[in-house]
Structure formats: structure tokens, C-alpha cells
Design goal:
The complex is a heterodimer of chains A (about 150) and B (about 775).
Chain A (H helix, E strand, L loop, with lengths): L1 E7 L2 E7 L5 H8 L18 E4 L2 E4 L12 E3 L1 H4 L6 H8 L9 H14 L5 H7 L11 H12 L2
Parallel strand pairs in A: 1-5
Antiparallel strand pairs in A: 1-2, 3-4, 3-5
Chain B lengths: L7 H6 L15 E7 L5 E7 L9 E5 L24 E2 L5 E7 L2 H10 L1 E6 L6 H6 L8 E5 L2 H7 L2 E9 L11 E6 L5 E5 L4 H12 L6 E5 L13 H15 L3 E4 L2 H7 L6 E9 L5 E13 L5 H10 L9 E10 L13 H19 L3 H8 L20 H11 L2 H14 L3 E14 L8 E8 L5 E5 L8 H13 L6 E3 L2 E2 L14 H31 L10 E4 L2 E4 L2 E7 H10 L5 E7 L4 E3 L4 E3 L3 E14 L5 E10 L7 H20 L30 E6 L24 H14 L14 H16 L1
Parallel strand pairs in B: 1-12, 10-11, 14-15, 18-19, 28-29
Antiparallel strand pairs in B: 1-5, 2-4, 2-6, 3-5, 7-15, 8-13, 9-10, 9-12, 11-20, 13-14, 16-27, 17-18, 17-24, 21-22, 22-23, 25-26, 27-28
Helix pairs in contact in B: 5-6, 8-9, 9-10, 9-17, 13-14, 14-15, 17-18
Classes of the chains: A alpha+beta (about 150), B alpha+beta (about 775).
Bound molecules: FE2/S2 (inorganic) cluster (2 copies).
One FE2/S2 (inorganic) cluster sits at the interface of chains A and B.
Chain lengths: ~150, ~775
């Protein structure tokens, strides 16, 4: 067991981890951050996507011990001061159905908008290409981002 | 006004609680399975004593440790909770392990000693047919005289088509958390489409009465039929372990495990013979449908039956014989999946029409149009039900125009003439889908509506929210009927102690059934409130004549239609009713009138109504690599008077894309031993964002209210899935262009890149000969 520090959604937190513990499990089970979901445990579905030092990663592929001192953001963090415009836009477009993919999709989209405030349809698709959604057919997700971008 | 999904704010902020997110005490144990490595084997002996000593392991159970019945088959009792003397598929549960960590469970698994004697296994549908391995006797539906008509008809064709299965790939894998209470009580938080059945199965397995078991379901992370019965399995396993250890136990399948051991959409083999005239009118069809049931019955008979009832899709066929045969194989028991046999059933007739069009060198849309069910005649289905409120012509006319079908047909031909190694295909296909459970008694639903003295409403109903927006629609119905703002209504988690003995949320019937039950409960409460309103209004203004029949509920107020200036707030009237000692809680119960079906005769009125839809899809294929994509899809779908357009359009889009996966990329590969080879998302491809149509026009049919349902709406969960058949037919069209539409393409379903290359190569070779 090693004690590491993670800055999770702007809060500095200590946690003891084994060398083989996966970041997703540590976030969910030890830190109570439940928005990243386990959909495949092997980096293919994107349900566990988070921002690690500002970059989106699949947290099921990362060892927690490697993240000592790093900054972690999840969608709980995006809505600290009320919902973001992006989150609001997803609500308005009824973008999600079961919602299980939403935390990962939103992180991917938020990362895109941070780097590219005016993405086109292809760029939006590219950004969420690592997130699987079995319910929506993606159209409503793309529309929500397009609509937000068009209002800027 | 646009109404948003009732959980949307929770979804986007990460606050929506799924079962794996529920906070439980440190006492929790995780449940793991020890499963069969063989598709068919005898269990000679086993010994768990060493394994039970593993640190961190609280229990290892075999069938001998089950307190009640060793059964979890929903209809036929042919699915043991834990295997006894033999195993019948790879992944069948033999032992249960409750452990603190996965490592401890793995350690214990290594110490389990067990001996098998491998037996011959049936691992493919064709083997099952050859070996006469049938679950039950065949079923038959027939209209007219098929044999005679086939002899007299001018042209005939025959062949067979293999249709693959499909993994549900709900994002949230099967999961259940069981928390023991006092005595024999058990509370299960289950990801199930059928909490009442989950309750029944837990009760049976634990050997207790149902009233000891409470099942609660807040929301599912997707289901699509995959949690109609198979959510029961993890629930039974978790309950047994929780009961044994007297601690909370969660069983959550990992993705690969889920894909390997749970049932899927039934693969089918369809053998067909059809007769048609020179105009392209289909005169007779003889079909044999073989369904790959897997090792147990589960819902196979109902799935097969629905496939048979959709084997003519939207077409009037005067002479038709449909034989259905359930084939038993040594694979996981296949189960419900959006469309429930309907998609497989329709593939037969759509393929036949596609071939007829090619043989007659006509456009397939023309042949489809010619054979559509009529409005005044030619409207009796093979099972004897009349097709009423037929929307097919409305759809056809509007969609041909909006999709610019005729023009694009010419464009496609031009493109194909100019390109040797890239081909385009275009197809338009209809859907007619029967709404109701074909098992008549299931068409019932209950609701419990509580009014609180502050005017807020708590709604309980028997349906489960799995993303389809059912709770949102129920919330809307209650708000509309009470005439109040939607945020005054909260929908509770589905709970067997609130509304008992419910049917599964399936067959697209969730809104129809539960919506009516909600309305009935609301009407009861409104009658009570109206009584109080009459009294209170008279107190406000003496000398006027107030009667209950005139009382209106609108805009958060109650008033008489005769004197609409005089209003009492909704909250006030509820509070007044409480002071008047009126009950502010009511149940509603609804059962669909008139549905019935006689299985031995193969006749009846199994459906309350039909939902219709139509789609035009254009695809492009690379002849040399088989790569393909959908250039454009135009959909017009009939949702009656939609209760929530945005939610319904989401259902149509999602269903189409899921259907696209089934017809193009989602191929399941097994080895000869019955091992599923592609059991993870890197090898099993569900559609990603790059696979959706480049242009995607989805519209709901306007001006077509459904006369007999809640607020004239229509069920919308399953029917649009089958719109994706247009993509498969467009792929056939594109492949067929390789042979200048003179030769018949040999294209299996799903039409993967591999199959497309093979089919193209075959045609090219034939051309060269
Ligand atoms: S759980 Fe991490 S990508 Fe699927
Ligand atoms: S909304 Fe269900 S998986 Fe995306």
C-alpha cells in the first residue's frame, strides 16, 4: 500500500493504494466519485473517461499509483457551480437515454471545447469516437454540441 | 413545450444512481461465478473443502446449498440456478463465491476441484436441425392454401437465409445488490426489466413467500430485452449468497463474462419458397423458421411466435404457411431483444421481395408498394387479425417525396455505371409491428398515485425506466391529467411493494399499459377532489350551482367550466380534501381489452393495434475491401400523437442505429466447441459515432392519432429497430450492382465487410464465366 495524493475536482485527497489498483476503481470505491462508470474494463467503451491533468483518459486503463500528485476532473467537477452550458445543452436536446455513457461522453466533449471552441460536425464525431452509446444513435449527442457551438 | 427526460439533470451531472453506484456498508461482499468450461458435460464429482479455506472468501456454494428451488427459468422450469449433474453450455454457473476481493475469489477458484466427462455438444443451429434437437413441437400459422397456390402460381423461387444473433451490449452489465433484512426479508436492487418476476424467482430460490422479498429498480443502464428475464439470474445468485452470509452481496458481471454467459438475440435460419406473378404480386409463401434457442426455453416460444406473426411484415399474402421450430443447442439461452423475433421474421419476406424485384428487373420499392396491406380489402394477416388504421400509404407517399427516392435511384444507377470498384445501393422498406404481449394475460398494469398535502404528487407504476423515457411520459400524463406543472410530479423507483404482480417492461407496451393505469388512478383522485371543489366553490360564491361534472383541472387550479373566473389552487384543494378526510392515494389498474390468440389454431387478435414506419437507406460499398457506410437514411415513423416528440425521435434514431449494428457489423463468432470468440468490444463491433448515417433525416408521421390508446399515442420502443432492414436491403442492392442486377447476391446477415467482399467476388467470378 502506498499513500498517494490526488487532486480530485479541486479537492486534495489522500488515498492508500496497491500498485495494481486501477484508477477507476479507486475513484469509485475509495473516493466515492461515482460518475465514471465501468462499461468494459479494457479501454473500449469510454464510460470511465475522466480528465487527468487536463487530458481525457480512460480511467480503467490507468494505475492509480501512477497518478500521485495529479489533477483529476470528472463531471461532478464540471457542475460544481451549477450545470455548465454544455451540460445544459445535453439536457435540452434529450441527448441521453439511459445516461450510462453520459459522464464519459461529456468529458470527451468538454475536452474538445476547451481546445477547439468552434468544432465542426466531423471534429465533434472525432472527439467522441472513443465513447460507445448503445441507446441514442449519437445524433442527439452531436446535435447538442453543434447547437451550443452555433450559439457562440 | 419540450419536456426533458426526468433524469436528464442527474445523467449530465453524474448524480444518476445506478446499482453499482449505491453506497453500502463495508460489510459488502462481492459475488463471483465458477462456470462450465464445456458446452456439454457430466459433472462426475467436485470438492469445495480446500477452496472454502481461502482467505477473504466467505462462502462457496453449490446446488446442494440452495435453500429453495434450484430453478430460475421464467416460464418453463429448465434453467437451474446452479448446475447439478450436468452442464449444458460454456459459462453455465456451477458454484457461487462470496468474497471480499476479486483476487480472493480467483484464488478460491483455483482450489476448487471438479471432474467432468465431456459429452457431444450441438454448437450450431444447423447441427441442431440435422440432429432433430428441438425444444418443443413446431408451431404453425397458415392462411389460404399455400401448397395449391404454389403449384398454380406462374413463377416460384426458393432458398434459405441465415440470420445472426446480436449481443445486447447494454452499457451497464447485469448487476444486482441484495441486502438481507430481519428474518427472511431480502431487499434486492436489481437491474431488471421485470421486478415482479425477479421477486418471484428470488422467493422460490430462497424458499420463502414473495412478501418477504422487495425488489427495487431505479433505472437501468440500458436493457433492450437483455434484462427481461436474464436480470433474474444475477439477482438469484446475489440473493442466495446474501441469504447464506447474512451480509449485503453484489453480483456484477464483467463485460466479457456478461457477453459470454448471457443469452442474445436468437439467430435464425429461414427456408423459403414463394410464388409470384409477372406483375410482382406475391401469391404464396411457404416459410420455415428455425430459431436457435440455446440450451433452455427462456422466452424462445414467444420470440418464435412473434417472428411468425411478422413473417409477412407489411404485405398482404393470400396464401401463406409459416412453420416455426425452436432448436435446442448447447449455447447460453437466447432471449428477448428489441423486436423480439420481429426483425428475424421480416427478413424472410423482405428478401423474397428483393429477389422478385431483381427477377422481374423492377425497382424493389415498386414491388413493395404493390404488395402492401390494403385499406379496405387485402387486409387480413395470416393469423386472422384485420390490419386497421393502416398508415402504410401515407408513409409511402410522404417518404418517397421527402427522400427524393426516384431521383436518387437514377443517381445510384449512374454512379454504379461509372464506378467499377465502388457501388451504391438504395432501398426502401416498411415496418408493420404488432403492439401487445402475444401472451394475452401479460397485458395488464398497475399504478399507485399519492397526493401530498402540499400538492406534490408521487407516482408509482409497474414499468421500469431503462432509458426509453417511460418515467418522463408517466410524469407527463399525470401532470396533464391533473392540470399541474410537471415538476410537481415525481416518479418513484419501481418497487414490488408499491405496485405488485406487474408484467415486464417489454413488448414496447410500457407507456400504453402503465400510462392507462396512471390515468385511471389520477381519475379516481380527481373525482374525490371534484367533490371537495364543489363544496369549496359554493362556499366562496353562494347562490351559484356547482356540480362535479363541470369541475376542470387546469393550470394548477380547479374550477367549474360554468364559472371559470372562480378558481381554487390545486394545492389548496388537495389540502382541503385532506381536512375533509378524503383519501389522497389511489391505485389504477388497466388491462388491454380484446386481445387473444389461439396457439393450436394459429389464429386470433393478438395485437391491440399496429405501429408503422418506413425508411429509405442509401449505402456505398468498396467492392474490394467490403467496407461500407450509410450515406443517407430517411425515416418516417408512426408514433400516433407522440407524447414526447424529442424522446420518440431519440427512440427511432437509437433503434435504427442498433438495427444497423445487427445487419452490418455485429457478428458473433464461435469455435467448434461452443466458445464465443469475440466477447469484448474490441472484437465485437457495435456501432460507434462514425458508423451512423452521414445524413440522417428522422421524422414522425403527422396527423395520425391512434384512436384507442393513452392520449392517442403509439408504442415506439421496438418498431423502428426494423427500419434498419432497409440498410441490409440497400447493401444487397449495392452488391447486386456488381452483377448488373442480373445475378442474385449471396449475402448473409450481418453483412460484414468480409461477407460483402465474398458476395462481390462471387458475382464477379460468375460474370467472368
Ligand atoms: S470501462 Fe474504461 S473504456 Fe470501458
Ligand atoms: S444513453 Fe444509454 S448508453 Fe448512451
Amino acid at each position: 500500500m502506498k499513500k498517494i495524493t490526488l487532486k480530485v475536482n479541486n479537492e486534495s485527497r489522500f488515498v492508500h493504494v496497491e500498485p495494481n489498483e486501477i484508477l477507476l476503481d479507486v475513484l469509485r470505491d475509495k473516493l466515492g466519485i461515482k460518475s465514471p462508470k465501468s462499461g468494459c474494463e479494457r479501454g473500449d467503451c469510454g464510460a470511465c473517461t475522466i480528465l487527468l491533468n487536463g487530458e481525457s483518459v480512460k480511467s480503467c486503463l490507468v494505475f492509480a499509483i501512477e497518478c500521485d500528485g495529479m489533477d483529476i476532473r470528472t463531471i461532478e467537477g464540471l457542475s460544481e457551480k451549477g450545470l455548465s452550458e454544455l451540460q445544459e445543452s445535453f439536457i435540452k436536446h434529450n441527448s441521453f437515454q439511459c445516461g450510462f455513457c453520459a459522464p464519459g461522453v461529456i468529458i470527451s466533449a468538454a475536452e474538445l471545447l476547451e481546445h477547439n471552441p468552434k468544432p465542426n460536425r466531423e471534429e465533434i464525431k472525432e472527439a467522441i469516437a472513443g465513447n460507445l452509446c448503445r441507446c441514442t444513435g449519437y445524433e442527439s449527442i452531436i446535435e447538442a454540441v453543434e447547437d451550443l457551438v452555433s450559439k457562440k | 413545450m419540450k419536456i426533458f427526460h426526468e433524469s436528464a439533470a442527474y445523467h449530465v451531472s453524474g448524480k444518476a444512481v445506478y446499482i453499482d453506484d449505491i453506497q453500502v456498508s463495508d460489510q459488502i461482499l462481492n459475488g463471483y461465478l465458477y462456470t462450465s468450461p464445456y458446452a456439454h458435460a457430466k459433472i462426475l464429482k467436485f470438492d469445495l473443502s480446500e477452496a472454502r479455506k481461502t482467505n477473504g472468501v466467505s462462502a462457496i456454494l453449490s446446488y446442494r446449498d440452495l435453500p429453495g428451488e434450484n430453478q430460475m427459468g421464467p416460464i418453463v422450469h429448465d434453467e437451474p440456478v446452479l448446475a447439478e449433474k450436468s452442464v449444458e453450455f460454456i459459462g453455465q454457473a456451477i458454484f457461487l463465491i462470496a468474497a471480499q476481493t476479486e483476487e480472493a475469489a480467483l484464488e478460491a477458484k483455483k482450489k476448487i476441484s471438479i471432474e467432468f466427462e465431456e459429452l457431444p455438444a450441438v454448437t450450431t443451429l444447423k447441427q441442431g436441425i440435422e440432429q432433430n434437437s428441438f425444444l418443443q413441437a413446431q408451431r404453425k400459422i397458415e392462411i389460404g392454401n399455400t401448397e395449391k397456390a404454389l403449384k398454380e402460381t406462374k413463377n416460384t423461387l426458393s432458398g434459405e437465409i441465415e440470420i445472426g444473433g446480436q449481443e445486447h451490449w447494454y452499457l451497464e452489465t447485469q448487476v444486482c445488490l441484495c441486502v438481507p433484512g430481519e428474518g427472511m426479508e431480502m431487499k434486492a436492487y436489481a437491474s431488471t426489466q421485470n421486478p415482479a418476476e425477479t421477486q418471484a424467482i428470488i422467493a422460490e430460490v430462497l424458499g420463502v413467500s414473495k412478501h418477504q422479498i422487495e425488489v427495487e429498480t431505479r433505472r437501468l443502464g440500458g436493457a433492450f430485452g437483455g434484462k427481461e428475464t436474464q436480470g433474474n439470474h444475477v439477482a438469484a445468485w446475489a440473493a442466495v449468497l446474501a441469504n447464506h452470509t447474512k451480509r449485503p452481496v453484489k453480483v456484477r458481471l464483467q463485460r466479457d463474462e456478461d457477453q459470454k454467459i448471457t443469452g442474445k438475440r436468437h439467430p435464425f435460419l429461414i427456408k423459403y419458397t414463394a410464388g409470384y406473378n409477372d406483375e410482382g404480386l406475391i401469391e404464396a409463401v411457404d416459410l420455415e423458421l428455425f430459431a436457435n434457442a440455446g440450451y433452455a426455453t427462456d422466452l424462445t416460444m414467444a420470440v418464435l411466435e412473434r417472428a411468425m406473426m411478422h413473417a409477412e411484415n407489411a404485405y398482404f399474402i393470400p396464401n401463406m404457411r409459416i412453420i416455426g421450430k425452436p432448436v435446442k443447442t448447447n449455447l447460453p439461452s437466447n432471449t428477448a431483444f428489441r423486436g423480439f423475433g420481429g426483425p428475424q421474421g421480416m427478413i424472410g419476406i423482405e428478401t423474397i421481395i428483393d429477389i422478385v424485384a431483381r427477377k422481374l428487373q423492377k425497382d424493389s420499392a415498386e414491388i413493395r408498394f404493390k404488395n402492401l396491406y390494403g385499406i379496405h380489402d387485402k387486409n387480413i394477416t395470416p393469423y386472422g387479425q384485420k390490419v386497421e388504421n393502416n398508415r402504410l400509404f401515407m408513409l409511402y407517399e410522404q417518404l418517397v417525396k421527402s427522400s427524393e427516392y426516384q431521383m436518387r435511384r437514377k443517381d445510384v444507377e449512374r454512379y454504379n455505371a461509372q464506378n467499377e470498384f465502388s457501388k451504391r445501393g438504395l432501398a426502401m422498406t416498411p415496418v408493420k409491428f404488432g403492439i401487445s404481449f402475444t401472451t394475452a394475460f401479460l397485458n395488464q398494469a398497475g399504478a399507485l398515485v399519492n397526493l401530498y398535502t402540499d400538492g406534490s404528487v408521487l407516482l408509482n407504476h409497474g414499468g421500469v425506466e431503462m432509458g426509453q423515457g417511460l418515467h418522463t411520459k408517466m410524469q407527463q400524463i399525470a401532470a396533464l391529467e391533473f392540470g399541474i406543472d410537471i415538476d410537481l410530479v415525481k416518479v418513484n423507483a419501481t418497487n414490488t411493494s408499491k405496485v405488485p404482480n406487474t408484467s415486464p417492461t417489454a413488448a414496447s407496451s410500457g407507456t400504453d399499459l402503465n400510462g392507462m393505469a396512471v390515468k385511471i388512478a389520477v381519475d379516481k383522485l380527481k373525482a374525490r377532489l371534484a367533490k371537495v371543489a364543489v363544496k369549496k366553490l359554493a362556499e366562496l360564491q353562494q347562490g351559484l350551482n356547482f356540480v362535479e361534472e363541470d369541475i376542470v383541472f387546469e393550470k394548477n387550479a380547479v374550477f367549474s367550466s360554468k364559472y371559470s373566473d372562480l378558481k381554487i389552487g390545486f394545492q389548496q384543494i388537495v389540502n382541503a380534501a385532506w381536512l375533509e378526510r378524503e383519501s389522497l392515494s389511489a391505485t389504477g389498474f388497466y388491462s388491454t381489452p380484446g386481445v387473444h390468440f389461439d396457439r393450436t389454431e394459429g389464429k386470433g387478435q393478438p395485437f391491440f393495434y399496429f405501429a408503422f414506419g418506413m425508411a429509405v437507406t442509401e449505402v456505398e460499398i468498396d467492392v474490394l475491401t467490403g467496407q461500407h457506410h450509410v450515406l443517407r437514411a430517411d425515416i418516417l415513423h408512426d408514433a400516433g400523437e407522440s407524447l414526447n416528440r424529442s424522446i420518440d425521435i431519440g427512440q427511432v434514431e437509437g433503434a435504427y442505429v442498433q438495427g444497423l449494428g445487427w445487419v452490418t457489423s455485429e457478428e458473433m463468432k464461435y469455435d467448434t466447441k461452443g466458445n464465443l470468440l469475440n466477447h469484448s468490444p474490441d472484437t465485437y463491433k457495435i456501432p460507434g459515432v462514425r458508423d451512423i448515417p452521414q445524413i440522417f433525416n428522422v421524422k414522425l408521421l403527422e396527423g395520425a392519432p391512434n384512436p384507442t390508446t393513452i392520449r392517442k399515442s403509439k408504442a415506439v420502443g421496438e418498431p423502428p429497430f426494423m427500419l434498419a432492414i432497409s440498410a441490409y436491403m440497400a447493401l444487397r442492392d449495392a452488391v447486386s450492382a456488381v452483377g448488373n442486377h442480373k445475378l442474385e447476391p449471396d449475402l448473409q446477415l450481418p453483412a460484414t465487410n468480409e461477407w460483402i467482399v465474398l458476395a462481390c467476388r462471387k458475382l464477379r467470378n460468375m460474370l467472368m464465366c
